[in-house]
Amino acid sequence: MISNIAQGVQAFTSNVFLVSGDRPVLVDAGANFDIVDTVRARVDDLEAVLLTHTHRDHVGNLAAVKDAFDVDAWGYDTSIEGVDHPIADEETVRLGDDEYVALHTPGHKNDHLCFYSEPASVLFAGDLVFQNGSFGRTDLEEGDRETLIESIDRVLERIDPDLAALHTGHGPSVTTDPYEHVELSARMARQS
Question: What φ, ψ does residue 81 adopt, rounded to 5°?
């Protein structure tokens, strides 16, 4: 089961997805809210935190989660404080009950990863794309529009057109025609 435990939080934070099952993990840690009690209300234990990228709104709560649950954080770049273990491009990682492939998708930030499970038909897109054709900012440090477009195109080539769920770093998850939202993001990024 996948739930956004930051849903409804009135603070500067990213979405935080709790993936329960065989290997309970968090995808991102969010910021500026009491994540520890929120997680404890739902699961007894965590095995890891997987990071889509290390912008402050995605990792502000990371130290608290690592301390409270005695877990490590996994991300693309271990030279960044708080990232304990690397996840390489195309590496397979287990989230809950399913295997996901990590896709290095820079453009919003150099260490950005998406996680895609073909069997589960789920994409964790971080801040690469959002609902209704929105896409990650490229006006921040390490942002690059052409690189972002290449990353969106790479994800589009990889995901199944019948994708069931798109979980994004901000805003609601998309469960109605999520592939079309990713396609629209690719078009909109080229027009802006």
Answer: -55, 135
CATH of the domain at 86: 3.60.15.10
* pLDDT mean values, one per 10 residues, the chain (192 residues): 93 96 97 94 95 97 97 97 97 98 98 98 98 96 97 97 98 97 96 79
What residue numbers bound the domain in which 71 lies?
Answer: 2-191
> Domain total for the chain?
1
**3-class secondary structure, 72:** coil
DSSP-based three-state secondary structure for 68: helix
Residue 42: CB partners within 8 Å, gap ≥ 6?
A: 3, 5, 18, 20
Phi first, then psi, for residue 124 (nearest 5°) are: -95, 110
What pLDDT, on the 0 to 100 scale, is given for residue 47? 97
Instruction: Give the separation between CA 28 and CA 122, rounded to whole angstroms.
Output: 16
pTM for the model: 0.97
Give the span between the Cα atoms of 192 and 179, in whole angstroms: 20
